[in-house]
Amino acid sequence: LAKTTQPISMDSYEGQEVNITCSHNNIATNDYITWYQQFPSQGPRFIIQGYKTKVTNEVASLFIPADRKSSTLSLPRVSLSDTAVYYCLVGDLGTGGFKTIFGAGTRLFVKA
Amino acid sequence: SQTIHQWPATLVQPVGSPLSLECTVEGTSNPNLYWYRQAAGRGLQLLFYSVGIGQISSEVPQNLSASRPQDRQFILSSKKLLLSDSGFYLCAWSVRDRGQGGYTFGSGTRLTVV
C-alpha cells in the first residue's frame, strides 16, 4: 500500500492560488492518485484523479511528475468556502486498493 | 445517477446498548462497499469493506461488525457499545473491479456513546 505524506495545514487568502503537494514514494504501477475534499461533519468529496502528467477539471488541476512519486493539487483563486481538509490517496480500487489509507490530510484555511 | 443514503445523521446511545447503522446505494450494481470511522480532527479509518453479498472483510479488530444482506445494502452493528465507539461513521461505495475511479461517501452518522 502506498503511503502518502502531506503538509498538516496551510493558510491562504481569498483569490490566491493554492498548491498542496503530496509525496508517495512507493506508488505502484497501477495506482491512481486521487484527491478528496472534506468539510466538517460531511463525507469526503471527490475532487480530481490522475495517473500521470496533468489533469484539469472545473474545480482544480493535478500535476504529476514523470516519476509519479509526488503530486500537486492546485486550487485556482480560492475563496472562503474552500476552507476544508484535503486528502491525497494513492491506490488501485480494482485490485485491492480498497484498503487505501486516508492520512490526516491537509487543513486549508482561507482568510478574507 | 448513483446516490448513497446513510442514516441516521446523528445518534446518542448509552454504553452497553446495541447499534445498527444502515447504508444503501442506488443507481449501480455490484458495488464495493465500505465503512469508515473518523475521530474528531483525525483521518478516516477503514473498518470494513465488502466486495459482494455476504462477503465482509474487517480491517481493525473492534467491538463492531458489518453485514451485507443485499447487493446495495451495508449495515454496521454492535451488540454492546463502548465509549470508544463514539465517532463519525461514513459509508462509501466504489465501482467494483475498476482501477480508475474513486469513493463516493454518504453524509455520515455522528455517534455519541454516553
Description of the molecule:
The complex is a heterodimer of chains A (112) and B (114). With 112 residues, chain A is mostly beta strands. Chain A has no helices and nine strands. Chain A has a five-stranded mixed β-sheet, with no helix packed on it. In chain A, strands 2-7-6-5 form a four-stranded antiparallel β-sheet, with no helix packed on it. In chain B, the strands form two sheets. In chain B, strands 2, 4, 5, 6, 9, 10 and 11 form a seven-stranded mixed β-sheet that branches. Chain B starts with a strand and ends with a strand. The chains are: A mainly beta (112), B mainly beta (114). At the A-B interface, strand 3 and strand 4 of A face strand 4, strand 5, strand 9 and strand 10 of B.
Which key phrases capture this entry?
heterodimer; A: 112 residues; mainly beta; five-stranded mixed β-sheet; four-stranded antiparallel β-sheet; 46% strand; globular; B: 114 residues; seven-stranded mixed β-sheet; 56% strand
What are the secondary-structure elements of chain A, in order, as H or E?
A: EEEEEEEEE
Radius of gyration of chain A: 13 Å
Poorly predicted tracts of residues of chain B? none
Main structural class of chain A: mainly beta
Helix content of chain B: under 10%
Which word captures the global form of chain B?
globular
In percent, how much strand structure appears in the residues of chain A? Answer: over 45%
How far is it from the N-terminal to the C-terminal residue of chain A, by CA? 39 Å
Oligomer status: heterodimer
Q: Strand order across the biggest sheet of chain A?
A: 1-9-8-3-4
How many E-type strands of chain B? 11
Largest sheet features of chain A: 5 strands, mixed
N-to-C SSE series of chain B?
Answer: EEEEEEEEEEE
Q: Radius of gyration of chain B from the CA trace?
A: 14 Å
The count of helical stretches of chain A stands at 0
Structural class of chain B: mainly beta
Q: What is the rounded distance between the termini of chain B?
A: 38 Å
Count of extended strands of chain A: 9
Strand content of chain B: over 45%
